[in-house]
Write a structure and sequence with these properties.
18 strands; six-stranded antiparallel sheet; Beta-Lactamase; five-stranded antiparallel sheet; Helix Hairpins; elongated; 494 residues; alpha+beta
Length: 494
């Protein structure tokens, strides 16, 4: 009978136990040859227990995870030391599989080495999953290296887990600090000491406190300037387990372009403002001189000379309006427009503007009709700016109305607001222009032959002025009803 069947009572107990574990028991002699293998080894490896008897582990071993593991195992066997979780791929008549085994040496009463006793289990699935995870990790790392952005991941304890090479490149002065396990705070503090961050110079601890507060929120996009002149856009977000994922993008070129554009815009604004002021002075003098000339010669000049004077006055008025519009436009786009408001009675102001523009109405062959002069309503507005808005609306209505038509101005109250309406009976606003009426430089008729066509700034300026006085402006239009522009301001005492 084969020796592996001569199982003592203690071995019978091992057989009983082996059926309860996820693995099998084994025993070797003093030459490290198997003298016992529990029967359930066959269920795990497909190879009967008796096949193993007389063979050493080295006879079964195909390969280890690495050479060091095999060397350490052989040294442990030679020195009769215990070993734990030795992993190897074994050969067998049925199939190859990965095994994890642990063993304890045992000795006789005189201390002479007798052999090893131990346990083993099949870890093929575990190795396959580990290999799959490692493959996925390498794929992820390769993908992260390909992207042209810095990527970093810190765990819930704010320690660096992984980052790509691009991330390290963005921090040349603290690159050696960016290693797995390093705390984010330690990295940035030492980086600040080495002069990595422009904003940290002369105030390191204060800057670290500010940066950590932003980092711990981890729901931000900020721009950070480095001491070498580069700008990084930083985006950080928290993961479900409390870690932090971050991206770094080099925006130096974009930032420099924006700064250059801002300088150019400022220079343009300053130029326009200067030129507008320079133009306004001589234009005002020209207009005043023409008015004085018209007054002093009104009894002696011919009709042709009157027409020439009228053309000069009208065009000087147009030039002054253009200059003023340019000044207002620059203030609006630069955010420098400031409007001081006081309570005013809307009806009186409206009536005054209409009267001041009756001459313009005659030139355009239209009639301005104030339908509700009896309504008195108060609003918090700027008198000059309100008159400017209303003049713009009256001018537009006159320019786009047929000859001898009426333009109706009315005041009403609606839901706590004072509403001033200017209605014409012209052709209306075409559908393709409706969404653009308050855009800068939009004109319904851009023909150079159209007299007083304007700059296209009147409506956007009027909109900005209305909003600067807590008001709104809109319009209703149609081919059969013309166009009605409505200005609304909160009514005082409503």
């Amino acid at each position: 009978m084969d020796s592996y069947l001569n199982i003592p009572r203690s071995m019978n107990h091992l057989e009983d136990y082996s059926r309860l574990i996820d693995g099998w028991f084994w025993e070797t002699d003093d030459q490290n040859r198997f003298v016992y293998m529990s029967e359930n080894v066959e269920a795990n490896t497909g190879t009967p227990a008796k096949w193993h008897i007389g063979k050493a582990r080295i006879d079964l071993l195909s390969r280890c995870l690495n050479d060091e593991d095999l060397s350490d195992h052989i040294e442990a066997l030679k020195a009769h030391r215990p070993f734990y979780d030795f992993r190897y791929k074994r050969n067998g008549p049925s199939r190859e599989c990965w095994i994890s085994t642990s063993g304890e040496p045992f000795f006789d009463e005189s201390g002479i080495f007798i052999g090893y006793r131990g346990v083993a289990r099949d870890i093929s699935n575990e190795i396959a999953l580990s290999h799959e995870a490692e493959t996925s990790k390498h794929r992820l790392l390769n993908a992260l290296e390909i992207i042209d952005e810095g990527f970093v991941y810190y765990d819930k304890d704010d320690r660096l887990v992984l980052c790509n090479e691009k991330y390290r490149e963005y921090y040349p002065k603290s690159r050696d600090l960016i290693v797995p396990g390093a705390l984010f705070e330690d990295i940035i503090r030492e980086g600040a000491r080495r002069g990595e961050y422009e904003a940290a110079k002369g105030r390191i601890e204060e800057w670290v406190t500010e940066r950590m507060a932003l980092h711990q929120k981890a729901n931000l996009i900020i721009e950070q300037k480095h001491s070498d002149g580069r700008w990084l856009r930083i985006a950080e977000r928290k993961t479900p387990d409390g870690g932090i994922v971050g991206f770094r993008v080099d925006i130096t070129e974009l930032k420099n372009a924006n700064l250059a554009a801002e300088k150019a815009s400022l220079a343009k604004s300053e130029f326009l403002a200067t030129m507008s002021h320079e133009l306004r002075t001589p234009l005002t003098s020209i207009k005043g001189s023409l008015r004085l000339l018209e007054f002093s010669l009104k009894e002696t000049i011919s009709e042709k000379e009157k027409d020439l004077l009228s053309i000069g006055i009208r065009n000087s008025d147009a030039m002054l309006r253009l200059v003023n519009e340019l000044l207002d436009y620059e203030k609006i786009i630069s955010g420098a427009l400031e409007i001081e408001t006081t309570p005013h009675e809307i009806g009186e102001l409206t009536s005054s503007v209409i009267k001041d523009n009756l001459g313009y109405a005659r030139l355009q062959s239209v009639n301005f009709i104030f339908k509700t002069p009896e309504i008195r309503a108060f609003a918090e507005i700027n008198e000059h700016r309100y008159e400017q808005i209303l003049r713009n609306l009256l001018s537009n209505a006159a320019k786009f109305s047929p000859a001898n038509s009426d333009i109706e101005i009315a005041i009403s109250r609606l839901n706590g607001s004072v509403v001033v309406s200017v209605q014409d009976y012209g052709p209306g606003i075409p559908d393709e222009f409706k969404d653009e009426m308050f855009d800068h430089f939009t004109q319904l008729d851009s023909s150079s032959s159209r007299e007083n066509a304007g700059t296209g700034l009147g409506l956007p300026i009027s909109k900005a002025l209305c909003e600067g006085m807590s008001g709104t402006i809109d319009f209703v239009t149609g081919s059969d009803v013309g166009t009605t522009f409505n200005i609304r301001f909160p009514e005082i005492g409503a």
